[in-house]
């Protein structure tokens, strides 16, 4: 089963694919049988119709949510990330439609999700029994990982408080020191004595006339 990438995106965005969610009390024991009993009829019908589909079972383990999803897609990303699909293909490409198993839980691993490729939708019916065995085996391992995660000592999530920002000390006003007035360097003027040349007044001799 192949589909044009743009057509795939359109169907997912328009929500014209087959989908449903089922709630299930925590299985006891926590095994795959009860979960797959919910998913198998819906997935078989979708594959028979060669239709896009996403079916999920919601349950919990040790008080934490566990979501098991069987979903058709053209890349190993849940359909909720449809906007990222065009990063892997050209929009006019023809892409093979596969069946994926997703197990989502904070208990399963650090990324909170495990993804397993089951195979192509086109070839699923040719070996349906073997494919369902494969799904059961993979889901069993995933659920075992969830149980192990639930038994691990819970790390106390200490919220690292960001250190309070120190209040910036008020900036000291830059005091520009007033420069002491520069001392006037008064160059002592050496008084230059005026050399006054005395005019020598020559007295006119008055000659008395004789009587």
Task: Describe this entry's structure for a reader.
The chain has 211 residues and is of the alpha+beta class. It has helices spanning 5-13, 33-48, 121-124, 128-151, and strands spanning 2-4, 18-23, 53-61, 64-73, 94-96, 98-104, 113-120. The strands form 2 sheets. It has a 5-stranded mixed sheet with strand order 2-3-4-6-7. It has a two-stranded antiparallel sheet with strand order 1-5. A hairpin with an 8-residue loop joins strand 6 and strand 7.
Task: List the defining traits of the structure above.
211 residues, alpha+beta, two-stranded antiparallel sheet, 7 strands
Strand/helix succession: EHEHEEEEEHH
Supply the helix-strand structural class: alpha+beta
Euclidean distance between termini CA atoms: 171 Å
| Helix percent band | 25-40%
Radius of gyration over C-alpha positions, nearest whole angstrom: 49 Å
Major sheet size, sense and barrel closure: 5 strands, mixed
Spatial shape: globular
């Amino acid at each position: 089963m192949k589909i044009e990438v743009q057509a795939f995106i359109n169907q997912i965005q328009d929500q014209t694919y087959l989908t449903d969610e089922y709630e299930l009390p925590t299985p006891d024991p926590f095994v795959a049988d009860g979960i797959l009993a919910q998913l198998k009829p819906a997935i078989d019908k979708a594959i028979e119709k060669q239709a896009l589909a996403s079916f999920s079972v919601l349950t919990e383990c040790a008080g934490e949510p566990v979501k098991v999803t069987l979903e058709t897609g053209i890349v190993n990303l849940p359909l909720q990330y449809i906007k990222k699909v065009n990063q892997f293909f050209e929009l006019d490409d023809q892409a093979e439609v596969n069946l994926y198993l997703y197990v989502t839980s904070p208990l399963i691993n650090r990324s909170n999700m495990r993804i397993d490729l089951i195979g192509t939708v086109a070839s699923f019916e040719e070996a349906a029994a073997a494919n369902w065995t494969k799904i059961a085996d993979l889901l069993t391992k995933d659920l075992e990982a969830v149980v192990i995660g639930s038994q691990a000592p819970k790390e106390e999530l200490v919220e690292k408080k960001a250190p309070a920002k120190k209040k910036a000390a008020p900036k000291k006003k830059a005091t520009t020191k007033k420069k002491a007035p520069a001392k006037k360097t008064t160059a002592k003027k050496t008084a230059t004595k005026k050399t006054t040349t005395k005019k020598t007044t020559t007295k006119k001799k008055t000659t008395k006339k004789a009587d």
